[in-house]
Amino acid sequence: MQIRKANDADLGEIRNLLNEHGLPVEDVSMTLIEGFLVAENASGMVVGSGGLERIGSSALLRSIALKSEWRGTGVARELVGRLGDNARLLGQQEVWLLTTTAERFFERAGYERVSRDEVPGEIRLCRQFAVLCPSTATCMRKMLLPKLSPAVVERPVSS
Fold first, then answer.
1. Rounded Cα–Cα distance for residues 158 and 27 (Å)
2. Which residues are in the N-acetyltransferase domain (predicted)?
3. Measuring CA to CA, how many Å separate 49 from each of 33, 114, 125, 148, 150?
4. How do beta strands 58-66 and 94-99 pair?
5. What is the pTM assigned to this prediction?
6. pLDDT digits 0-9 by tens, 49-76
7. What is the dihedral of CA 53, 55, 61, 64, to 10 degrees?
């Protein structure tokens, strides 16, 4: 299994995965695909996807979907981890998401349940929050700590 940056040729397969799981596809487009990753099996077939939409100083985690036979293999956990790393490297301070089915999965990945009132206005106004996801979806957030480069990591002072 390999995880790589999605490209325009992956759009149809990503949309198929989302449709299979009843996830919104209306705004998954060539523009949005820039923040997506895909997981491929050894044959090069897309078996999973996930996206990161940058909105101001925050990011929205979206469209985590796997082919059914790949559930429970760690692929989703790897996709979510890599997308979080990407957000951190891009300087995003927090990642938000909405879920109707995977709250426990995201809790294990470090996300906390929060009230929609806590969501920044720019995130609340995006299409995913305002239109596409139901108001009953659980809102979650993960605060990101800046990633220090090895040159900046503090080292003990020898005496």
1. 55
2. 1-145
3. 10, 25, 24, 27, 30
4. parallel
5. 0.83
6. 999 998 888 899 988 999 989 988 999 9
7. -30
Instruction: Catalogue the E-assigned strands of 21-151.
Output: 36-40, 46-55, 58-66, 94-99, 112-113, 138-143
Between 20-29, 40-49, 135-144, the lowest mean confidence (pLDDT) is in: 20-29
**Hey, what domains does the chain have and what are their CATH numbers?**
2-143 (3.40.630.30)
Name which of 30, 121, 45, 36 is nearest 82 in CA terms.
36
- CA 23 – CA 20 distance, rounded (Å): 8
Q: How far apart are CA 95 and CA 86, in angstroms?
A: 11
C-alpha 28/C-alpha 51 separation (Å) is 9
